[in-house]
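Hi everyone, sorry if this is the wrong subforum. Our group has a chain we'd like a structural model of before ordering constructs, and none of us has done structure prediction before. Sequence below.
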Amino acid sequence: MFIDAAWEAWLATNVERGCSAQSMIDVMVEAGFDRAEAGAAVSNVTRAEAGTKASPARAAPGAYQYDRCPVAQGNVIRAFDRDVKVTMRCERPQIVVFDDVLTAAECEELIARSMPRLRRSTTVNPQTGREDVIQNRSSQGAWYPRGEDAFIERIDRRFASLMNWPVENGEALQVLHYGSGAEYRPHFDYFPPEQAGSAVHTARGGQRVATLIVYLNDVADGGETVFPDAGIAITGRRGSAVYFRYMNGQRQLDALTLHGGAPVRQGEKWIATRWMREQAHG
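Answer:
Right subforum, don't worry. Here is the predicted structure as tokens:
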């Protein structure tokens, strides 16, 4: 089988996240690849780089210092090629909710493109770095390398402009699908520095600093993005988005950004996610 751009992005993402070679080979074999072919593909993208920068520290409760959020002020923000409306700002944790980030046509195109690419979502074992399928995360995902084509490049630039962070610091765009009953239980998007597996993740591009979740459809019931320790739940609408930042200028990490995707009670949920790093990633 041909290793297309989607599989290359999947491999690069999972190598960077610390997945074991065997776990990735097994997934590819299950998808129809020859084992030797899968092994060669994994070998071509495997890197073993050690991080050279001191790890950030997770701030003790109440100790995180909230500095100025990078997102521009105002109720309407020019994001590369589009005006985006701000509908909510929260200072602790730093959360911004937007409308009109994507058009209806762009949402539909991302969904259509992603359907044939979907793979079961996984999470990284915090101690070993191995990629595991777990009950806490019951979605399917597709990955798009930065600048894969003109359509993806336009979205990359719009998201980077909205987040006010360099486009080259962004990870591959991920599109996720949650069917009825699917959820993602509360978790952190940053790599916890006290976990042994985190050094593998931060070796290329450093720590994650902020997340943008863009909603690609209207969910009939459920599927909210919840911040349980902050008492916040956000119901997404097609084309809207939520931004949240969890690393400040002192490289502290904000534990108040614990978040999850509530179970989809009716219908389905499609989202696109962009994670930003401290440094260029890729």
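For your construct planning: The chain has two domains: 1-48, 67-277. The helical segments are 5-16, 21-30, 35-45, 104-114, 150-163, 198-202.
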